Amino acid sequence: KKRVYTFGNGKAEGKADMKNLLGGKGANLAEMNLIGVPVPPGFTITTEVCTEYNELGQEKVVELLKAEVEAAISNIEKLTDTKFGDSNNPLLVSVRSGARASMPGMMDTILNLGLNDDAVKGIAAKSGNEWFAWDSYRRFVQMYGDVVLGMKPESKEAIDPFELIMDEAKEAKGVELDTELTVDDLKELVVKFKKAVKDQTGRDFPTSAWEQLWGAVMAVFDSWTNPRANYYRRLNNIPDEWGTAVNVQSMVFGNMGNTSATGVAFTRDAATGEDVFNGEYLINAQGEDVVAGTRTPQEITLEGSRRWAKLQSVSEEDRKAKFPSLEETMPELYKELNVVQQKLEDHYKDMQDMEFTIQSGKLWILQTRNGKRTGAAMVKIAMDLLRDKKIDDKTALLRLEANKLDELLHPVFDSVAIRSANVLAKGLPASPGAATGQIVFFADEAAKFEQSILVRIETSPEDLEGMNIARGILTARGGMTSHAAVVARGMGKCCVSGAGALKIDYKARTLTIDGKVYEEGAWISLNGTSGEVYEGKVLTRKPDMSGDFGLIMDLSAKFTKMNVRTNADSPKDAQVARDFGAQGIGLCRTEHMFFEGARIKAMREMILASTTDGRKRALAKLLPYQREDFEGIFEAMAGYGVTVRLLDPPLHEFVPHQLATQKELAQEMGVSVDVVKAKVDSLEEFNPMLGHRGCRLGNTYPEITEMQARAIIEAALNLKAKGVDARPEIMVPLIGTLKEYKMQADIIRATAEKVFEERGDKIDYLVGTMIEIPRAALTADLIAAEADFFSFGTNDLTQMTFGYSRDDAGTFLPIYMDKGILKHDPFQVLDQEGVGQLVQMGTQKGRSVKPDLKVGICGEHGGEPSSVEFCHGVGMDYVSCSPYRVPIARLAAAQAAV
Ligand code: ADP
Ligand code: MG
Ligand code: MG
C-alpha cells in the first residue's frame, strides 16, 4: 500500500480529486504543482495512515512509513539542494495537517522544523541574515513545544509559557512588535524557550531533525482528536473516522526581511460575494502572523487598502506610510499574485482562499481551497459563475449549502432605526448581518443571556462553542482574516473585528469606549455589514428576498420532484411560507386555536362537561371560532392543499392548574371548585405523550371530531361561495390500528355528507392519517386501503421508535452525542437507518395497495437537508416544514433530484 505521495517542481503523484486520501490541502498542493503554480516541494502522508496510527500506535506506523518518508525527504533534498539534518545547509520543513474537509485553525502546524543550535548558524550563514535565522528558530521551538511537547495550556485563561517569555522580553526592551527585537534578543529567547521546555517537560529540546519530524507527524495525527477539532467536526458533521493527512513541505520564508512577506488572499469577497480580489499581508512575517492579530495586517490591493483606511479613520498619509498595500510595496509581485489567483479560480471554478509567501522577491503559494463564505456570498458567487457560464445549472445548485440560505432570511437593521443609532465604535465588517444583545466577555459564558454579544480582544479556536451560541462577535484586534472573522463567516454569524477603540478589561468585566464604561450585560448592537457598533438595542426588520435568491428558487423549481409545504397554524404564517414558495400546508395544528380569549373557556367547558350533551353545547360554541380560523388559512393557501390535523394533545394541557383560575371556572360553570379540581386531577397522566391523546380523543369523544370536521367543511364551502379555491385535507393523528382510523374517517365523511346536504353544495376533500406510531407503519397496507393520504409525523415516530421522550431526552442526548453513541440528535436529523426504515416500509406498503397514495412528511425533519434528501429517495410527494425553512427545503429537494 502506498502511504506517501510526493509533489514538487511541476510534478505530483496526487491530484485535486484525491481529497479523501490526501486531504484537501495535500490534494490541492499536488494539483497546483500540476498546473504550474509555484509551490514548495514536499509530500503527503495519507489519511489512511491516521487511521492506522489510531489502531496500531506510533511505533508500528513509523515502521510502515519509514522507507517511503525517507525517499520523499531525499526527493525534496534534491529539488532544493539542501540536506535534512545537516548543519551547514539544512533542509527545513513545515509539518501541516490537512483533512478532507477544511478545518481552519483546528489542527496544529509546525514550521521551520530541522533547526537546532548548529543548523541555525548554517541558515544564518547561508542566508546572510542572522536575524531571520534566529527568528525562525525561536518560532520553531515555541511551535514544537506547544504542539508536539504539549506545552500549550488546556485552559483558555492560562497564558502560553512562550508568550509569557516573549511579552517579558518585549517589555524589558520597551518594544511592541516581534520585529523590533534584535538578534541578541532572539538568541536569548531561544535559550529561555528551551529552558522552559526542560523545566516543564523534564526533557531537553530534541536536536535531531528526524526525531523532530516523527514527533511532529504523530502530533498532527493526535491533533485530529483534540477537543477543538472534535467540536468543529460535530458542528460541521464531519465523521471522526476520516482522519487527517500530514503534509511535509520544504519551508519558504516570509521573514527574511523587507523583500519578504506572507499573506492570505481571496479571489472574491467572502462576505458579500463581490468579484474583487482581496486579502491581507504582512512584510517580514511568517505563517500565522496575519491571522494571529499580533500585528495589524495590510490590504493587498490599493482599493482595499483605501477602503480599510476609511473604515478605520486612518488618513491617506498614515495609510501610505504605515499600512501600504502590496500593490504599492511590491507592484511586480502583486501582478504575479493577481495572475495566479485568476488562474486558480479559473481552474477550480470557484472562489479560492489562498495562502502565499514571498521569499526575497519570489512568490510561493502554500495553500488553496474553496473559500469559506457567508450565505449571501455563497448565493452571489454561485449565481455569478452561472451567469458567466463558468458552471452549469446543476453545478450551481450543488454549490449551495441549503442550511446556509437561513442567513439570508434573517433580520437586518431597520433602516430608520439605524440612522438614529448612536455609533460607539467602528471596526471591520468581518461577517455581515445584524445582531443585538448583551455583552459577555468569555466564550464559555455566552449562554448567560438569551441574546449575547461576545466581546473579546481577539478570539481563538477554543472560543468556538461560545461563538456559536452568541448572537454576534465583536473583537478589538484582528483583521478580515482573523480567527473571529473567518469562523464567524463560516457560521453565518454577525461579526465586527478589529474595533481599535475598544478597551476591554477581562478582570473587571468592562468594555470602555472613549471613556464610557459598559459592563457585562449592557446592550449593544453590531452591524456586520458596515462594521459599526451601536449603543443599546437597535430595531431589526425582515430582509428583502429578490434577485439571486429568487433565481435560486426558480432553479430549484426546475429540478425538484417534490413539493414543499409548510407547517402553519395561522393565515400569517401561511402567507410567509407562501411568499417563500410553499405549495400548501402539510400540517395545520388545531390545538393552538383553542387557547385564545373566549375559546379557552368554551374548550374547558367542553372538557369538564360530564355528559355528551354538555360537551356538545360547549363544542357548539367552539364551532364558529374554528370555522373562522380555517377560512383564514384556506384563503391564504387558496389553490393548494391544506392538511388539517384533528385535535391531538391530551386534554390536561387545556385545563386550569391554578386554584384561582379553577375557582373562576367553577363559578362560571355553576359547579363547586372541588368538582373542577377533581376533573383536573382525573385528567392527569403518568405518560401523557403515550396517553389519552390523538385519535384516542376523537374515538372516545366522537363529537369533537364531528365539530372539527364540520368547521373544516363549512369553512371550505363558505370560501367556495366567495370564489376561493379551498382544498381541505383532514388528517387523523396518532393511529396505530386500522379501526382507530376507520372510525374517525367514517365520522368525518358522514359529517361532510350532512353538511353538503344542509348547504346544497359540495367540495372536494381528502381524509387521511398521520403515520407516527410504529404499528401504523407496519400495517400501512391495511390503512392505505381506507386513507387518501399518509403524512409521516417523524417527531412522534422518532420518539416511539427510539423510546426517547421528546420532552425528557435533553438530559441524555447531549451526552450520547458527546460519547458518539448517536451522531445526531434524531429529533433534528432523521435517523435514516432506523426510523427511516419505517418511513420507507410505510410508504411502500401503502402504495402497494394504492399506487397513487399521496405521501408526505410533517415532522421537524421536513426542513432538514439530509432528511429532505431521504424523503426524495423514498418517493414522497412533498415535505412540510416551518415557514422559514421552506426555501432551504426547496433547495434541498432540488439538490436531491439533480
Ligand atoms: P492551517 O490549516 O491552520 O491553515 P497550515 O498548514 O496551512 O495550517 O499552516 C499554517 C501557516 O503556516 C500558514 O499561514 C502557511 O502559509 C504557513 N506555512 C505552512 N507551510 C509552510 C511552508 N512550507 N513555508 C512557509 N510557510 C508555511
Ligand atoms: Mg492554511
Ligand atoms: Mg404527533
TrEMBL record:
Task of the protein: Catalyzes the reversible phosphorylation of pyruvate and phosphate.
Keywords: ATP-binding, Kinase, Magnesium, Metal-binding, Nucleotide-binding, Pyruvate, Transferase
Pfam families associated with the record: PEP-utilizers (PF00391), PEP-utilizers_C (PF02896), PPDK_N (PF01326)
Residues that, per the record, bind substrate: 589, 645, 772, 793-796
Listed InterPro entries: ATP_grasp_subdomain_1, PEP-util_enz_mobile_dom, PEP_util_AS, PEP_util_C, PEP_util_CS, Phosphohistidine_dom_sf, PPDK_AMP/ATP-bd, Pyruvate_phosphate_dikinase
Domain named PEP-utilising enzyme C-terminal: residues: 553-897
Any one GO molecular-function label of the UniProt entry: metal ion binding
Active site residues per record: 483, 858
EC number(s) from the headed UniProt entry: 2.7.9.1
UniProt cofactor(s): Mg(2+)
Protein name: Pyruvate, phosphate dikinase
Catalytic activity, reaction form: pyruvate + phosphate + ATP = phosphoenolpyruvate + AMP + diphosphate + H(+)
